[in-house]
Every structure is written in C-alpha cells, then in structure tokens.
Amino acid sequence: MLELPQKGMVLNNKQITEVFGCQFEGGIRKSKKNHLLVLINDLAQSLYQNRWEKDVFYFTAIGKKGNQSLETPWQNRDLSQVNIAGQRVFLFEKLKPAHYLFQGEVVVG
Question: Cα 62–45–19 angle (5° rounding)?
C-alpha cells in the first residue's frame, strides 16, 4: 500500500519518484507499478494555462503545437481514461526547483 505524504508537504523530485514509483520528469508522470498518475503544475514556467477556480483545478494536458488530442501522446490518453482504468491521480505544484507542494489526491471529471 502506498504511504502518502501529508497534504501541504514539500517534496523534491527524488522523493516524488520514490514515494509514487513514477517517472522522474514531466508534467504527467505514470507509475505502472502503483497504477497511478502524478500531475505537476509548474507555477513559474508553465507552458500551459493551468488554473484554480475555487476548489477546482483545470489542468491542460500535454501538447505544444496545434490542437491537443486526448489520444496522443500517451500522457493525454492515460489522463483522459483514469476513471475507466481505475487509476489514482495526485497533484503537486512546483514552487521552485526541487520544491514540489503536495496537493493530495484529485478527482478527474
């Protein structure tokens, strides 16, 4: 069973990788072993228009050119299908290099 950090804790990249068993980089990180996704919202240098509206977080999937697709790359497909696949999703906000604020588990709607 996954031992989660407390909401509000600040972790570094290595700790995120160790705790969640996910990839070391990227805005959408997958753990096949733990059947989950970790979302990273970079507050300083986001290429995307992620935003909070009250207690709802709007996360823009991956893609820099043209219209984004929910089928490719795999990160977008996996994020769009988490409810079907039964995957858990967790959110971190990157405050500065090596400082990621854990926002907890999120529901994808």
Answer: 70
